[in-house]
Structures
1.
Amino acid sequence: MAVARDRHGAAGRCRRARRWGGVALLAIIWCWCLLPFAWLIDVSLKTGNNALSSPLLTQGPFGLDNYASVFGQGFGYNLRNSMIVASVTTILCISIGSLAAYALARLRLRRKALILAGVLAVSLYPPVALVPPLYELWRSLGLLNTYAGLYIPYTAFTLPLVIFILTTFFASIPSEMEDAARVDGATPFQTFARVILPLSAPGVFAAAILVFVHAWNEFLLASTFAPRSLAVQTVPVAISVFTGSVPFQHPIGAITAACVIVTVPMILLVLLFQRRIVAGLTAGGVKG
Amino acid sequence: MSSVAIARSRSLDESSLGKVFIAPSVLTMALVALFPVLYAMVLSVFSYDGLRREGFAGLVNYAEALSSGEFWRPVNATLVFTAASVTLEFLIGLGFALIMARAFAGRGLTRAVILVPWVIPTVVSAQMWGLMFQVTPGFINHYAWFVPQDFNWLGTPGWAMVAIIIADVWKTAPFVALLLLAGLQTIGQDVYESARIDGASAWQRFTQITLPLLKPAILVALLFRSVDSLRVYDLPKVMTGGAFGTETLSMLVQRFVADTPDPGMGATLSILTFIAVLGIGMIFVSLLGRDLAGGGEGR
């Protein structure tokens, strides 16, 4: 607060002090966000009981044994399953959702308000409410312990997010572009596929990342519909069942290593595409 | 062709295309969100012995659920969790957003850093905090001088919930900050400038300008965080397994599917959860509706 108090105060030194004050405050945020994960990495690199049961960060020996043991337990299959389920969810969700968003943003459509209210209701929906009925349904359809049993509900639950993001995005594209396409004789579908979709690539990309992250992290449905079989079990479920019944027999090293393995790609995703996510959500995009 | 005829043919074309475009989304959501609720209503009026249907039971399941402490204890735990975590997340998130809005350097990188807790899978953050709160190898007891060395956070009623709330606040306060920061950046600097010329103090500028103009963003953040907290499952499931008064509504419902299967009672509880969560969400939306619509028109 004091940092921003006096704007007219003698320039140089004051401005520099303010800048360093701002950086110091930012450091609080950095510590909040990064320290717990840094601790996790530290623990995952410790080997042997002595190191793993010590609260000291520097208690060695250190090594990559935990990572080797994680992959020895079939964690590679879990990674593959999560990758497939999250990718299929993303593709389905974006292709279905972008059509709906375009219709809501641009096309003449009856009962638009009702549809939007329905979409909002689904976004407020407690997923656990569908666990008992869907479990019964999946059991009779033979969809328990299958990829489809997971990506179908994931798609339904992330559709509202995609529809909201892309409706806003499509609505922000100036309608002159479509009018121009129409004058040139394009059908409404051509207008959507050739003009609108390329222009909204950043928004589509941002929505795709959000869907992927959601599907990658989902736990409730994954642990209920595909709890054990290594052929379909996703990463969060695998990580949760590392928990032993006796606290002191926790495979701490394996848990922490597995946690680091699944999180690092997600953090890279965020660091790489942070700018594009933000830009995608803000940029309107009229060029030429 | 007259221009009226062209317009009409295009609008027909458009509205049928609209139906085709919207159909897959509506069907998917109806299949997965609407149909199961109807199916659950059917299941809930039957009594089961294990997985075998015994007969029509009317509203017996509902009466049994509503009169048992087994239902109300998780309701209570869920409400305590939601109230505490949403309040803390909002206050800390607002603080973070104000810091970031004022920062001169490092804002872009901070925005990336702030996404890190958000992107970490909840199961991972549950395991992480679970380990940190444990005597070994956790460091919380070691460095927090006010806590006994062998204090068992996750094994003590009351404190187990505190640990879960801390884990949740860590993960989602930065996300709230991001939402509020976006709201802060829509407020023009000139408003502050003229308030400053009129002699408004920093506190006055905060309460008279920032908070009122930030209201739409605050309301949206509170809505989504509240609804999300009411559905909490991952954190207590992994950290305590629901022991020591940390079982939430979602965990209760899930228990009747997996651990002690009873489709009738499970469906009954899921309908009750559905009504409770969606009801609270809808109350929120209708209360906020006016403000949100106002905020939307401003764009």
2.
Amino acid sequence: MRTRVVLAALLFVAPTTVVGRVLLFRPAASRVQKDPAYMQNVQQNAGAATRKVVVISDLHMGEGRDPSGKWQPYEDFRWSTEFAAFVTSIDREGRSVVDLILNGDTFELLQSANGNCAGAASGLGCTEAEALARLERVLRAHDADLKALGQFARAGSNHLVIVPGDHDAALLFPVVKRRVEQALGVPAGRAEVASSGHWVSADGQIYAEHGHQIGANAHKFENWPSPFVRRAGSETLARPWGEAVIQELYNRYEPRFPIVDNVAVAGVGVKFALASDPADPGDLAAPLVRYLLFAISFQQFRMELDDGDTEPPIWDVAQVRSQGPAFLVSSLPDDDRLKPLASKALGDGRLAKTMDQLSDDEIVTLCDYRAAMRRSRRRFEPVPTQFAPRGPAVTECPRSPDTRGGVFDYFWRSRDLTFGRHLEMVAKSLPARGKPIGVFVHGHSRLPDRSQSGANMISGGLLKIPMEGFSPVRRALTPIVINDGAWQRTITPVQLERLAADRGVPERELFSVLQPEDLAPCYSFVEIDLAAGAPVPATKYWRQSTAGDWSIAATCGR
Amino acid sequence: MAMRPLCTRLPVAAGALAIAAWGVTLHGDDWPEWRGKGRLGVWNETGIVETFPASGLTPTWRTPVYAGYAGPAVANGKVFVTDSRRVKANHAIERALALDERTGQILWTREWETDYSGLQLVYAIGPRATPTVDGDRVYVLGAMGNLLALDVNTGQVLWQKDYVKDFNTSIPSWGITGAPLVDGDRLICLVGGEPDAKVMALDKRSGAEIWRSLSSETEPGYNQPIIFEQAGVRQLIIFHPTGFSSLDPVTGKVYWEVEHRSQMGIVVATPVKSGPLMFFTSQYGGARMLKLDESKPNASVLWTGPGEQDPGMTHDTPNTLNSVISTPVLYDGYVYGVDNDGQLRCLEAATGKLIWKTDALLKEHAMYGTAFFVKNGDRFFITNDRGELVIATLSPKGFGEISRTKLIEPTHPYVRRRQFPNVLWSHPAYANRHIVIRNDQEIIRFSLASGS
């Protein structure tokens, strides 16, 4: 790791590119950091070079059990015992000098067994009062978890930050925020909700946000961190279009398919539900096709060979647009579970307006995705997430004439552009202070980033350095963007397919009977080591061994 | 292999001079295509050196060329080779050259522009395919699928095709490599075109399409078409990432196929045949020995060896023989070849049982070790990726090195090289008691005649 940091300093490239300029901005303290108690706390530990940062996200603590003692179908956080052990473990390992960042969606305040908020019919979220009422039910259900967090925050010079995500954006209501801080029951400055909507370390080198505000995410709020609209003199949570679509379907499917939102990448579980229950979602079909086409993980396209040193072609976006909505359907391989619905929606005209809603950047993203999919299928490449390596390929988008011919292996253009722009925007928004952002942590998608030994290389391919996460600056080692996954039990589509094959049961049957408790006891998080001076992140897992012991591991062993 | 008087292949004046100088009429073989005539890796000439002089071989000529993996072909007194030079970014000019076999003088060149964007750039140095010579035509192929039929005497373009524009090919990461194969009036090409044009037969005189065969649902791979006769039937064998296909070379109709999927499209080593056995090997897919039916065109799998793509396997896990680039030898009941780890191995052909393995050929144990084997009598002439030529015997008793000499500097860039920064991955030509070998800077001819 030390070698990598030194090399990063020596070999950083491309500072003059748009993305590269990100590094030249100097982010500074957030509102959280300006908290006097926190700053005092940090100063007290200024000499402690071993301060650790641990980032987890997507706990989705819900309303717990129903009166009969059964889990509510929407309750995803059923892991109090191992969570308490995890928090104790990181406190012990970090010698109580740990920043624990709950990086969004700690609380499930969107989905409730007690029905929708009043504004749902008009496309809105909850009012402050409604959100507070939901929170109270969640706090009652997760008293043990809040106690574990409070105990952590009181120990040594630990510090706890709760960053709001899209499912708990209601934490940005002042009353809701205060209620959570009160529930933690720790002295001021030791724990807080980040009303800035993000967290940044004292020296400015580590930045964390949930992830739903990145790029054209379907869950993005217009005015983050003020995700509100004013109605009748009071503020109500806005509701992003993707949220409305996917939440409606989760509400519909989760009682029958309990792991529908445990499939990584988030949203993809709906495809399995559609395959198991092909009832037409009606007006939701068009936005669902759009949503799921973009619910992809760039991680699945990591290179297995070398550094992906070839340039991507130029897609002919005008020609793509001329294909109309048929382009959307042709972007799905024939074995994609969404294909039947997408084809039907195309046939009856429901997709007619969808192409017009896509930006050129989004079309390029889809074209990059198609090319990556095509390559992996044409070469039987092992794909770590959504697709089995064997199956029909899709066609490429049309290219500009002078970029026809070669396949290419740099599929990261859209990803790098998306994160590069976002980092640039973040850096600009932060007051100048400290060092540039070295590590950017996000969650939201369920699937953690893994070491990508092949995806990032430097010096023209002669030196290969394993890297956690990725840098949106091509062939550079910083800034590092890393996805912390979800502190949840998850399963990928490929794993689900394998499980069905291993058990010899139809996938549909398996999908309807699996409970979250049946999934691998393994929870991802990101740990950032500061011992070397520059932050070095690593994806880790809180994993139960076959003997029943819990420990931190480098992989899930799945 | 039929031998023809060398003098019939040289210009009259040069031939007369040669005869006068030598005083006797010698018989020589040409090397008109990949691995010599029939693509068999067999060199039948006699009167060849037993050992190399301690001081090494002296070049009869050396001529500067640009970069490329393509080995030379030799026919009718000419050496044909292709090369490439970058002119700007990924833009390159590829070139076919004809050289006087006796002097190395460049007789003509033919250039065409290309762009290597889309190739894996560290390996995008130039053409891969050995030229194929057929009478008065030589067929050359660029890394991006530019196929040209040229007049052997003038370099004039008789016809040309662009795989991308004419056949809708997606060029794979390591370029187009399948050297065209002449069969009667047909030029059989591994195209990877769409739809259903993984392999095509073109009219060798006009370039007109005669047939197309096999789906391009998968990449074309990096192999060489080859024709074998079995059960009284000539069979065109295509080793591609989905498996092995036997086609009627006249019609493209599929005789038989054995599914065997190899990741990354990396199927490079040419299939080899001995009697009813046919052997295939690749890094990811592993090894397959097929037994061909002796009464009709058909085949079955005799044994299999695991590949890197198989569960639990890596390039360090015990296997049979997983060659990345090197075409193995199937000879007298045994398989000899270089594994991905650089070891020379001997397997029992009937079972796949490992008989022996050694690092003695490449002198190091490392990934992507490569050597090219050519049989001459009961000896093998082997060029390795260190630029050495080795004379050796191969038998179940072991690797018997007879003599070794350094011929040429390895110059191909390579990302995982061991002792040296570069490798030599170009197959040489053995013709008229000489070896002709190239790197990315020059092409050299050495005499291998006894007493030279």
